[in-house]
Amino acid sequence: MKDFAGTPGTLTALALRISQCIFAAGSITAMATTTNFFNFTAFCYLIASMGLQVIWSFGLALIDAYALMKKKVLHNSILVSLFVVGDWVTALLSLAAASASAGITVLLFHDIGPCTYLSECEKYQMSVALAFLSWISIAISSLIMLWLLAAG
After folding, report:
1. HEC letters along 23-85
2. Which domain holds residue 96?
3. 3 in a structural domain
4. Are 55 and 103 in contact (CB under 8 A)?
5. How many domains is the chain built from?
6. Would the pTM of this model clear 0.85, i.e. be above it?
7. 14/124 Cα distance (integer angstroms)
8. Is residue 37, in this structure, part of any structural domain at all?
9. How many CB atoms lie within 10 A of CB 41?
10. Which ranges carry the Casparian strip membrane protein domain (predicted)?
11. 37-86, pLDDT tens digit by residue?
């Protein structure tokens, strides 16, 4: 397997995993600090999806940090295959949750009229924006993992 930026055990991979974890945790925090998020199924799905994202990204960040400490690049094809499947599953779940939540947010802001609970609507928007940022970083990771698997 080739060694390029973003492969497991590199500083770039660690930075991507940490950014995924931070954006997903921020999305959860913004949504969970509202009082009415549980009234919308899409928002509950966003919290569940971002929770899975935090667990997955944090676990892989620990693996990347350990590999960096040991100065090893992880090129085991079975391990990379596991990373590919996990990244693609979490990427698809994150995109679906962020898109569904964005749809509800647009509905609340523009289609129904002025949002009656304005401070919560701003938190909804922040949560959705952070979810999309998390999805962008997981999409980059999943493409790198797929590329690495194909190159191997």
Report:
1. HHHHHHHHHHCCCCHHHCHHHHHHHHHHHHHHHHHHHHHHHHHHHHHHCCCCCCHHHHHHHHH
2. 11-151
3. no
4. no
5. 1
6. yes
7. 28
8. yes
9. 11
10. 7-136
11. 888 888 999 999 999 999 999 999 999 999 999 988 777 888 888 989 99
